[in-house]
Design brief:
Layout lengths: L5 E9 L7 E3 L1 E6 L2 E7 H11 L2 E12 L1 E6 L15 H14 L3 H17 L2 E7 L5 H11 L2 E5 L1 E2 L13 H15 L7 E7 L7 H13 L4 E6 L3 H11 L3 H8 L6 E5 L5 H10 L2 E4 L1 H6 L7 H6 L4 E3 L12 H10 L2 H4 L6 H7 L2 H6 L17 E5 L14 H7 L6 E6 L2 E5 L2 E2 L4 H18 L1
Parallel strand pairs: 1-5, 6-7, 7-8, 8-10, 9-10, 10-11, 11-12, 12-13, 13-14
Antiparallel strand pairs: 1-2, 1-3, 3-4, 5-15, 15-16, 16-17, 17-18
Bound molecules: zinc ion.
Zinc ion binds next to loops.
Amino acid sequence: MNDKSLVISPKFIITNDTNRFIFKDHSILVDGNLITRIEPVEVLHAEAQMNGWDIVYEPNLVLIPGFIQTHVHLCQTLFRGLADDLELLDWLQYKIFPFEAAHDEKSMKYSAALGLAELIRCGTTTILDMGSINHSEVIFEQIAEFGMRAFHGKAMMDINEIFPKLKESTKQSLKSSEELARRFHNSAAGRIKYAFAPRFLLSCTDGLLKETIELLIDFRGTLFHTHASENKNELKAVRERTNMNNIEFFESLGLLHDRSCIAHCIWLNENEIGLMKKREARVLHCPSSNLKLGSGIANIPRYLKEEINVSLGADGAPCNNFLDIFVEMRLASLIQKPIHGPKALDAKTAFELATIEGAKALHLENQIGSIEIGKIADLVLIDLNQIHNSLDDSKESLYSKIVYSCDHSNVDSVMIDGKWVYKDRQFVKHDLMNIRSNAEWELKKLLNRI
Ligand SMILES: [Zn+2]
């Protein structure tokens, strides 16, 4: 948090408030970690001069709310490019599970650091992250260190038929998750929260799932984070075990409610769409990952029509291979168009999924996801004047520019909780090259442990 009040004066402010208002030639005032005023530039500049407040005057940049990615795996960043061109179950069995099992504290530290650096550099200020079985405390430390706002939880796995080494007993999985929640939930001045994370049905006994959902009562403000109905072979195995589809089985165990955040949800039947809506469960949509693993295309326009909450995430680096929210927004929009027509999932909707809808998924919509008085200052300054951006300078062109023709290189500065973590295209505290070279070294050692 800044000691002094700070005035930020961009060209446009995309508020993303309920009216989707866009200000031109206005400033915001940040006091501590909160947005306290939005006024014409001249008003706040005059007061800033009188009171000695700091001013960030950026008449060529656009201020937007920080992006929210609701499904990522920091523990997998080191494995980028090492698990290409595989379908989900092979990808897990032959690559990701053996890699995750080989992590030690140091490799986990740099996997998380590399992922966090990439996420912040593309303007992501909040994540919902799923860890592996071990070393979640290291991930929490890195999240705190980078200043990220995050939900994280260790992956819970008490069965693993395809890679038996990566699992633990039901009791141990519950006990260690509870210990982590006790230690880290609401830590870093409330910026870090816990999300219980049974990995997916095929890695969890019914007992583990049922006891996990009970834990949400003991730890207020936590989430239930899992994967479901991502891949047809996964679904076949789920049917063999349960005689039901994935979401139907979750319903039978009482796992569906408004704190259930479920990644993918590609292969849902009509009944399951109805259940997601009725229980207000959240869909975490990962378009790049769904395409790269050949999993399928989720019917997002249909879910939105049913008013099911949908938000976006890059998933893990080895199934993407970026962690760039601009890639996800663009793809979320484009992949629907050949199926539902060119008007489907327009740029403004894609932007909403990556901001306010993500906040709603996490039950943080009163704090983040838009630029409004009283909300937390999680903010991004972007430069829309690069050679790959449209020359149209109007307000109306902003969503199109951001969703269809931006990438991380457009991001100028990132503030989380009222504090710059990335300013003028530089990390305030971290040396990116140093993180990358350490990550490279740790990956070499990890591969020797397999
Ligand atoms: Zn995932």
